[in-house]
From TrEMBL:
Domain of life: Eukaryota
Organism the protein comes from: Phascolarctos cinereus
Gene Ontology CC terms: nucleus
Designated name of the protein: G2/M phase-specific E3 ubiquitin-protein ligase isoform X2
Annotated region (Disordered), positions in chain: 272-294
Amino acid sequence: MSSGIWQRGEEKEGVYGFLIEDIKKEVNRASKLKCCLCKKSGASIGCVASKCKRSYHFPCGVQKQCIFQFTGNFGSFCWDHRPVQNTPSSHCTVSSQCTICLEYVEHLPTYSILGSPCCKNAWFHRDCLQVQALSAGKFFFKCPLCNNSDKFQSEMLRMGIHIPEKDASWELEENAYQELLQHYQRCDVRRCRCKEGREYNEPDSKWEIKRCQYCGSSGTHLACSSIRTCRQNWECFECRSIIYNSGDFRRPKKRSLPNTENIGITNCLLEQPSPKFSRQSPRTQNKNLLRSPKILRQGSLTPNSCLDKPPCSRRLRLIPPLINVAAKTPSTTKREVSMLKRDISNILRELGYQIKQKTRKLYINKENIWNSAIKGFRRRNFNPSDAIEVQFCNGNGDTDGSKHEFLSLLMGQLESSSLFEGSMSKNLSLNSEALKENLYFEAGRMIAISLVHGGPPPFLFSKTLFNCLVSGPENVEPTLEDVEDSNTMQIITKIKSSKNLTHLRSAIHDCFEYLSHIGCLRLVTVLSDKDVLVKDILTHHVIKRVQAPLDSFQQGLRTLGVLETMQKYPEAFYSILCHKPETLTSKILSDLFTMHKLSEAQDTRAVGFWMNYLQNVESGESVVTLEDILLFATGCRSIPPVGFQPTPSIEFLHADYPVGTKYYNRLTLPITNTYKEFQENMDFAIRNALELEREKNYYTGC
């Protein structure tokens, strides 16, 4: 950047073509020049404007917002003569998001804000563009909206953006795309029957994992989806839904077959085309393969279904799925396919594919979960897409922690925090200190991380808050149930209960200062105007008043694409974000745990004690609850939407009391001689362990 030196040598001569004697001369020249900013010598850079005599150091020029062009003659411009962008005034009237960091920018060309030369509504922060240019390099740096490279780079170089002549940083990372070479091997059906776990794969057996023939990113054991051979095709339900909803899917013509013996149309389906059909193209055959018994309504396959017959004796008719002959309404088909698409466990499992094999360890103080989590999430090297490992730190030393327990405790802290207001269903509160510390963003990010990493949801959103997130606050009408502040509720009630126009004007006069302050003061001429006034007050108090926290909260929820997925599948997310979890039953809990086999003599008695204990707890004959048992074993009071990983298990040992190993989701049960002894030991251990944990949280304020 020095004004008095030129690259007179070859690239390998001197210092990148700058000869040593030239460098010495420039140092001698600069020593006689004083910086016009810091008044120190060594100011080797001068403004290239013809009549400007300012000289300055490079760091001083950057601080004063001078522009340095990293192209051509590497000219520099002082703050008075720097180039500016010519932007029509019509483009400077509104604000929008910076396409790179998604923060709002004003449409006003300044030193720190640049507009795109190829897209009139694209505006960026200078710092964001510089970071992207350093990462992308000359060969990948382009307009984020239209991908224009030549025009975009030319303008950015003119405005002082340094574009290094190198390959993109993601192309230089060693083994950057190594995971693409790995085959997906996991059973994703809701009820996996394999006792060895979902990742178990044994080739040439019924426990071989078959991948979806379309996406390859979902799998199933052959036995879990009733697939007879590995040569038989299988499709995940996401791909089935796409095919069924596509315009290319056509219902095949019905053909009468001899000797069908009045087989019902909903009694059976074909996994492969019938030999009675005429020859079909491979594309048509692939569509016919999508018809699977798994997506029929329950009860549609009868005991006499021809699927139970040998393949050679099957004489069936191909039918479109999800159609009930008795109803014959296409709306039913669309609704059932929609429900298939919106299954929350599969949606979250799909988001979980973003998680890398690289692990990130979080050191969490169990006595201060909230601050420990924020500190860990704000570390520079923390990446939400890395797998999370938890290590609990306290005065007794470090111990390996359960990710499910950590996320469950964190969601509990979030539910009781001052960021939300309301008793059961909650809305965002206005906390200026939390807004200043960016805690609303952290809250949104915590929820997104918990959902994608297999943790529980917070179970706290009100219907109004949820609709603001998925539909936008401008499309939401709050209700009286959303108001938590007693003074505001009193004002609304007084206005709403006005019986005539005189009473209404009197109520408005009493709260004149409040209505004027919030901008809801209006002239009332008829009694029905009170409804409009109440609506304005509700909109301000519930939505407009917390607009800044809502924007920050939404940005946090965008982590790992959770907010976008919520907006795509609102019904699925509504069930877990606005409702309490499903009540546990003894059957749910017994099906959740996988039992390790005992000797034949002990097996029946020990398992019988366990099953009787679950039934007694469910009926209220114990001091503990089913939620306490789950919490004792896994650290969670409810089953996460995507289930537990690893799968909860039970083992029996000759011990006095049960042991819950939350890191492995393992419950070790004692082997006793009588059921009474078994119940007493279970109640004593679980009750005391949980009470000790509650007391510790109470005294530490956790």
